[in-house]
């Protein structure tokens, strides 16, 4: 903050450092510092908004990147509003998409929403969380209300959105209802009188629409905080259930442990920065240890245990480690292994072994399975007709052959 702007107290500077840790962008930082100072001066909590559309029934670690930041703001004394987009889900968020997404039915949304708040409460403090559903006000708008809302934003501004621009230039259809999504998400901020809205980097446009609509409705505009998108297990795309490269926060400890151990040593540091509660100094210390020769696998084990302890228990984390080590006792997992991409999901295990080179032929692959020498994510394969869906797996043949295989 420049010297020409109003100074903020040391307490606010401390709070701002917490808010900024790991974030991609805070717009506008000087405005938010003033909001924090006013909040302290008046003993009035800020209203912090996060909206999630229940497009799938479960929350994964990618969602918790933003939820963790919400919890930090909650612990600083601010009011957290967890907004379930049960109305906007039926439109479908076009963010980052190159085609119109089929909208969900009301029944699908209601089914998915059942578990959302319960799972979010594994990160947020439920006693200090306000839960809202945007169908409560969006359904009341009616046709005339939607028209009035649409009159407050121009097509030119809407076409500034990167994915819309690319689709328009590429001749890819854009349905009119897709323009309604950012408008209604922005209207949520008006209704909730939000001071700060959080989201992933792919939500930046939508969050800024909320800021502009608040000005249109005579409100002080919200600030916008974007968090990086957590890359999924494949090391390529953002974590997503549709990509099957995710770790659900309610998955069994053994499954979580195996998946976390399957990520590459390079990707591990991104997971530490976005998911771990260790300080940045502690993470830098761990990175230095690996540079000086410590096995990255040890550091990955620490991360897996931290995550499993958070969502299960310390005992479950210890048991998951013991089970993982027992599964691989006959052959230690190498620090480096070939990373192979195989198209055509789902793929039969025999074809996976043959095309990855882990087995020289289909018949050898079948013999390897019959002899009990094939493991996928540590689990022995006994069924020669096993199909691997899209996702990333550590595949082992015998004691020496390993590959991290992404089926897509």
From TrEMBL:
Keywords attached to this entry: Aminoacyl-tRNA synthetase, ATP-binding, Cytoplasm, Ligase, Nucleotide-binding, Protein biosynthesis, RNA-binding
Domain named RNA-binding S4: residues: 347-406
Primary localization class, coarse: cytoplasm
Binding site for ATP: 241
E.C. numbers: 6.1.1.1
Top EC group: ligase
Annotated compartments: Cytoplasm
Function: Catalyzes the attachment of tyrosine to tRNA(Tyr) in a two-step reaction: tyrosine is first activated by ATP to form Tyr-AMP and then transferred to the acceptor end of tRNA(Tyr).
Protein's name in the database: Tyrosine--tRNA ligase
């Amino acid at each position: 903050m420049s010297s020409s702007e109003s100074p903020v107290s040391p307490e606010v500077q401390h709070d701002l450092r917490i808010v900024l840790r790991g974030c991609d962008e805070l717009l506008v930082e000087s405005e938010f510092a003033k909001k924090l100072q006013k909040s302290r001066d008046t003993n009035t909590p800020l209203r912090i908004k996060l909206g999630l559309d229940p497009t799938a029934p479960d929350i994964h670690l990618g969602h918790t990147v933003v939820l963790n930041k919400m919890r930090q703001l909650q612990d600083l004394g601010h009011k957290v509003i967890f907004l379930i987009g049960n109305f906007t889900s039926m439109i479908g968020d076009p963010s980052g998409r190159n085609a119109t997404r089929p909208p969900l039915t009301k029944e699908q949304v209601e089914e998915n929403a059942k578990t959302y708040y319960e799972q979010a409460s594994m990160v947020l403090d439920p006693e200090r969380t306000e839960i809202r559903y945007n169908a409560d006000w969006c359904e009341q708008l009616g046709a005339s209300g939607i028209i009035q809302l649409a009159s407050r934003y121009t097509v030119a501004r809407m076409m500034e959105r990167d994915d819309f621009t690319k689709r328009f230039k590429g001749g890819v259809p854009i349905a009119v209802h897709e323009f309604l999504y950012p408008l209604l998400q922005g209207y949520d901020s008006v209704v909730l009188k939000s001071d700060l809205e959080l989201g992933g980097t792919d939500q930046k446009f939508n969050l800024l629409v909320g800021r502009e609509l608040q000005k249109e409705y005579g409100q002080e505009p919200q600030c916008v905080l974007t968090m990086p998108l957590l890359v999924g297990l494949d090391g390529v795309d953002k974590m997503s259930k549709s990509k099957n490269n995710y770790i659900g926060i309610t998955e069994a400890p053994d499954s979580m442990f195996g998946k976390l151990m399957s990520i590459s040593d390079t990707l591990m540091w991104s997971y530490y920065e976005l998911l771990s509660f260790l300080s940045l100094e502690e993470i830098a210390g761990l990175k230095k240890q690996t540079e000086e020769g410590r096995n990255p696998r040890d550091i990955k084990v620490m991360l897996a245990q931290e995550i499993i302890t958070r969502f299960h228990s310390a005992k479950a984390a210890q048991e998951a480690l013991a089970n993982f080590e027992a599964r691989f006792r006959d052959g230690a997992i190498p620090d480096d292994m070939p990373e192979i991409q195989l198209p055509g999901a789902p793929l039969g295990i025999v074809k996976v072994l043959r095309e990855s080179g882990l087995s020289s032929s289909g018949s050898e692959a079948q013999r390897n399975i019959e002899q009990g020498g094939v493991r996928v994510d540590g689990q022995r394969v006994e069924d020669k007709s096993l199909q691997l869906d899209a996702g990333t797996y550590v595949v082992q043949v015998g004691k020496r052959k390993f590959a991290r295989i992404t089926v897509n």
